Amino acid sequence: MIPFVDLKREYQEIKDEINEAIQRVLESGWFILGEELRQFEREFASYIGVKHAIGVNSGSDALYLAVKALNIGSGDEVITVSHTFISTVDAITRNGAKPIFVDIDPETYTIDVNQIEKAITKKTKAIIPVHLYGHPADMDPIMEIAEKYGLYVIEDASQAHGAEYKGRKVGSIGHVACFSFYPTKNLGAYGDAGIIVTNDEELAEKFRMLRNYGSPKKYYHDFIGVNSRLDEIQAVILRVKLRHLDEWNERRRKIAKLYNELLEDSDVIIPIPVEREYAKHVYHLYVIRYKNRDKLQQYLLENGIKTQIHYPVPVHLQKAYLNLGIKTKLPVTERISREILSLPMYPWLDRAHLTKICSLISRITKR
Predict the structure, then answer these.
(1) Distance CA 98, CA 89 (A)
(2) Which helix (H) or strand (E) holds 194?
(3) pLDDT digits (tens, 9 = 90+) for 148-160
(4) Nearest CA-CA partner of 154 in 44, 69, 241, 66
(5) Which of 30, 196, 288, 310 has the most CB atoms at less than 10 Å from its CB?
(6) What digits encode the pLDDT tens for the residues 75-127?
(7) Coil, strand, or helix at residue 220?
(8) What are the φ and ψ backbone dihedral angles of 100, each rounded to 5 degrees?
């Protein structure tokens, strides 16, 4: 069996470093808002190329708090995509605002920048582009539109740790950016964890208070916040793994290149994920498209290959959002959701694994 991801193999590679780091936290006796978190926040901010990083409980909370801190709420609109994990959109609706969906680029699966401007109204307050699957959204035109209309840009970089846009790390371009450290991410914790990054000092301080009950100091509360703190054990795990991130991303890029070569002649709609000239793709996911996707997925499973679908039902077609009365037509999003298939992708795949996967794909697609 070839798994979709292999977190056991990852742990074995860095086992001694991880165990030593966790032991350090246990022996310190300090588990919340301590020195390990402060060090990780500094290291991650430096890695991304921003001034501030604020660790929180999850990527979902990072997005929710980003929208909340910008005072976006009832009566406001936020432009984003439907082809994303639901947390992107939940962050908007949980704050009382309305998501305005635009379609995606059919090759990168990120927001179609040509559709943003016509979606703007007097109620629009922000744009949330998603750097999906490890490929950056086209940020320059997004920032130009935001500046023209006085909008905030919140980067959802939850699948793009280390990805670059024109030589800059994603997360360093918008007004605020959010990352998830869910265990399967390129940089993953051993549980839920997330972080918010920004160059705005005032916003950074607001995030620090929001994650800790709206408190500037213990037992004093300036506004209503939440309990959303990245704990010391997750922080120290992430400190260890951050040192390996670039190496692991380069392995992913090499695996993607080999996938590209082996799938070049297969009869799938898009066998090779696009990497635009402005982008450095970090391949959180390696996604192909095939018209009879469900048959292909079942065939691979029967032959010992685990795959996933990211995502089978777009957010605007989810029951939760239909019940809110949010109705729109997104032809590209709706079409690709029926065709996409995510193949195994993690740094420890080898040529034998990939040869087996691609041979099976070629076999069934040429029948």
Answers:
(1) 9
(2) strand 194-198
(3) 999 999 999 999 9
(4) 66
(5) 196
(6) 999 999 999 999 999 999 999 999 999 999 999 999 999 999 999 999 999 99
(7) strand
(8) -115, 115
Average pLDDT over residues 22-37: 98
Amino acid type, 113: V
CA 221/CA 360 separation, integer angstroms: 59
Please count the other Cβ atoms lying within 10 Å of the Cβ belonging to residue 12: 11
Which positions ≥6 away from 271 have C-beta within 8 Å? 260, 263, 264, 288
Categorize the per-residue pLDDT at 217 as very low, low, confident or very high, splitting at 50, 70 and 90: very high
Name the residue with tokens 């957010």.
315
Residue 219 falls in which region: left (phi positive, over 0), alpha (psi -120 to 50) or beta: left
Mean pLDDT computed over 175-195 = 98
Across the chain, the runs of DSSP E, i.e. the strands, are 52-56, 77-81, 98-102, 124-127, 152-156, 164-165, 168-169, 176-180, 194-198, 279-280, 286-289, 340-343
pLDDT of 332 > 70? The answer is yes
List the Cα angle 271/273/275 in 5-degree steps. Answer: 145
- Give the C-alpha separation, 166 to 162, whole Å: 13
User: How confident is the model at residue 367, as a pLDDT?
Assistant: 59
β-sheet bridge partners, residue 174: none
Q: Classify strands 168-169 and 164-165 as parallel, antiparallel or unpaired.
A: antiparallel
State how far the Cα of 337 lies from the Cα of 289, in Å rounded to an integer.
9
Kindly report the average pLDDT of the chain as a whole number: 97
Contacts of 227 (CB under 8 A, 6+ apart): 57, 211, 212, 213
Q: What amino acid occupies position 313?
A: V
